[in-house]
Amino acid sequence: MAPRPNGSGMASEGWCHAIGARKVSPPGPGPSLSMTLHLPTLLLTVVYVLILLGLLMLHAWWRSEGESTLGYMASTLLVAAAGMLLSSLRGVGIDTLSIVLGNMLLQLSGGLGWTTSRVFAGRPAWWPGIIGGALLWGLLCLWPTFLALLPLRVAIANLLVILYSALGAWELWRVRASLTVSVAPALGMLVLHGTFYCLRLLFDHGASIGLRWSESVADFMAWVVLEAFLFANGIAFATLAMVRERAEQRYRAVAYRDPLTDIGNRRAFTSGGEVLLARCAAEGRPVALLLCDLDHFKRLNDTHGHAMGDAALVAFGRLLALKIRQQDICGRIGGEEFACLLPGADRTVSLQVAERIRQACSELSLEPGVRVSVSIGVASSEQAGYDLSRLLALSDQALYLAKANGRDQVECSAD
Questions:
Q1: Residue 288 contacts residue 345 (beta carbons within 8 Å)
Q2: Global pTM?
Q3: pLDDT digit string (tens) for 235-285?
Q4: Which of 332, 350, 327, 334 has its CA nearest to residue 269?
Q5: What is the phi-psi region of residue 289: left when phi exceeds 0, alpha when psi lies from -120 to 50, beta otherwise?
Q6: Which residue in the list 215, 336, 367, 382 is annotated as catalytic?
Q7: Which domain of life is it from (predicted)?
Q8: SS3 293
Q9: To 5 degrees, how large is the angle CA 241–CA 245–CA 249?
């Protein structure tokens, strides 16, 4: 017959044994200031908070129309709550079930937590990794010696928590440079969580459930419960903040993109152009503006249909993206009107760039018998200074001149 387990495993190891009030008094003479620490109450508080946070995350996941990161975080918190609650039911005749199933749920929570970071970093969930810790714990519990040795269970549980924390931190660390949101808070909390369990691995061997560092420090298990409370709150809100920041950036990107051509719209061109002009003015660098207008666009729509007109706009938008440099700014600022800002380009260079764009446009092949051309007006800071509205006005005058001269032309402002 297998020996009866003494104690428990993972973060919950020993919580249920501290079912009485802990009275802690500071050392030294004088009046005694006492503090009562009731571990079951603390444990139930953590379970309550985990359930509450899990439900809030579940609501956020539903409101976000299926943001998988929030879904995995909700699962992490709710599974952890179930595991902690079940692990606390020791001493009521179901010790073995509590040790086995309760800690399997806690390990499953660790796998889901790692997957939360993994999914946020852009990688798919890996279910063998999610359930691996729980399965390992279940298999080990089939070994009677494992169930009987509290220090061994505590050590294995700590190692699994450290492993999942390290994996979660690694997922965020490896993509930190490519992400546009700050992962530092979540990364820091995962590192601190793993570090705490490294310390627990060193100091808590399960030899004494009532382990005390000194007369003025509460039972070690109180720190385990308190750390779980702080970590659950911190990682939940850090994850929610990361998801929200990324969503806001996506919405902002959509607001600044032209949905048809997938280049910047007028708002993006204006805001980006103002920043670029201010920087060039401070550095004393020239700037040129190209104002491009597709010729006979209304006739193209009327003759070949709006689908062909859309195809012409998309093709020209791609052409601009290929012909300009990374530091240049371009955007669709009107129906068939596009603009480009070229930092560091004087009058001569800007005319050369405009001519290359005009020539490339004349070579576009949309459909047999369908030809597209563009007229371009050029203005530079040498004439207009670094005022965007002035540059647009002068380039518009040059564009009008190119249209008057027969279209498919490049003209430069004379002012």
A1: yes
A2: 0.70
A3: 999 999 999 999 888 888 888 889 899 899 999 999 999 999 999 999 999
A4: 332
A5: beta
A6: 336
A7: Bacteria
A8: strand
A9: 170
